[in-house]
Amino acid sequence: MFDLSKYATSAATALLLGCIGFSAPAVAESNNYTLEQAVNYALDNNPSLQVMHERIAQAEAQVGEALASFYPQVKTRLSYEHSDNPARAFSMVISQRRLDLGGTDFNHPGGVDNYRPEVIATYSLFNGGQDYQNKIAAELGVDAATLEESATRNQLIQAVTSAFYSVLAAKEAHKVAQRSIDAVKSELEQSRTRYEAGTVLKSDVLSLEVQLAEAQDAEIQAANAIELAQSGLRTLMGIDASGEFGIAESSVWQLPQLDKSFETLLTQAIAQRPESEAAQKQIEIAERKLSAAKGAHLPRADAYLSYGSDSKNLDYSTNRDNVTAGVQVELDVFSGFRTSENVKKAERQLAEAKKIARKIQLDIENDVKTAYLKLQEALERVKVTTVSVTSAEEAFRLVSEQRQADVVTITRYIESEVARDKANSRVIAARYDALQAEAELNKALGNWK
């Protein structure tokens, strides 16, 4: 389960405990998810994370495959042979233990059948160190796959968190749009009444009707934004389009804080981002594979043991069984440049792994810098927009009172109403941008691995 309590020292703690209802049950009630529940559900059902689980299992299987080289290899075989070649036929007769020196024409033996069931065991005594290097590479592969799964988990939690905030922001924007519609409708009804009484101009009524249409258009867009945001969140959580879905809303606003320097955060990110460690594992894997490729230049030694029986039919008898054991040593003198080309390929793969590691380090630095600047900007915007909302609300209140007293024009009323709505929209965007920027910063630091 995704336990938010382990991030108690992060800047997001106050927000997460307050906004997502940390004390809520782990399972969403009535399909209304808190942030914690949405993240937990995504960790269990997101296809990308499930793919990474399968890759870990594949890597573990590759370790078992590499270890197979250290065990004896045993196989059974049944062969049939027919020959009238004197030398070969004579050998078959002897192997079948039925040589008759008096009644055999060795020059014209005729066709001889030979059936041979046998069990063969081989064991690699030395393979140029290739088996050992491949085993180590496979074990490192498990570590790399685990780190890549951790990186995917880190990215998934950030994506779900940002998507969750996007849904909340879209809903808040929709509320602003609805409030604007209500305000314009109320004023329009009063203006129509006054127009009928002859106290306002027709142009004032028409202006309000235009303003109402614009407010309704904004409401339609805001409602669609909710659906789009929820669709993205559904995909991340692994919920299909037909499944019931909703999120638990909260009116609690608690913003993150930025109390560490960029240099401190960058050092932290490089030390704990799983992508960085996974890249180092890939370098080690490439080094092992290069050593294995070079091992093909060395000789190979194998021991073998064969137990079988030769007969002219499939009848088995211990009187005809035989055992063969031995050791063979091989060395490739010329392989058509295959070995040298494999070494070159492994060298290029090692160089590639080092360059990828460098690229990942640069990406981490960029991730931290971008998230840091976004959070810094969003927090500054929150301060500014919060002040503007207070001023805009007061201005609208005053203009509304003046409008009731017919001392301001409808144009001024519309301007103040639009200014109020824009101020509210800006502060909503700034607050959620701050929350999303903090989620990006946590991902950039590897806090959710």
Describe this structure in words.
It is a single chain. This protein is an alpha+beta fold and 449 residues long. The protein has one domain: Outer membrane efflux proteins (OEP), CATH 1.20.1600. The protein is 64% helix and 11% strand. The protein is built from 10 helices and 6 strands, in the order αβααβαβααβααββαα. The strands form 2 sheets. Strands 2-3-5-6 form a 4-stranded antiparallel beta sheet. A two-stranded parallel sheet has the order 1-4.
CATH top level class name: Mainly Alpha
Derived structural class = alpha+beta
Order of helices and strands: HEHHEHEHHEHHEEHH
Which strand order does the major sheet show?
A: 2-3-5-6
Report, as a whole number of angstroms, the end-to-end distance. 13 Å
Can you tell me the CATH superfamily? Answer: Outer membrane efflux proteins (OEP)
Taken together, the total number of domains comes to: 1
CATH-level-2 architecture: Up-down Bundle
Characterize the main sheet: 4 strands, antiparallel
Q: How large is the share of residues in beta strands?
A: 5-15%
Averaged pLDDT? 86
Radius of gyration: 39 Å
Percent helix? 55-70%
The number of strands is 6
> How many H/I helical runs?
10
Which consecutive residue ranges, at least 5 long each, have pLDDT under 50?
1-27
Overall shape: elongated
CATH topology annotation: Outer membrane efflux proteins (OEP)
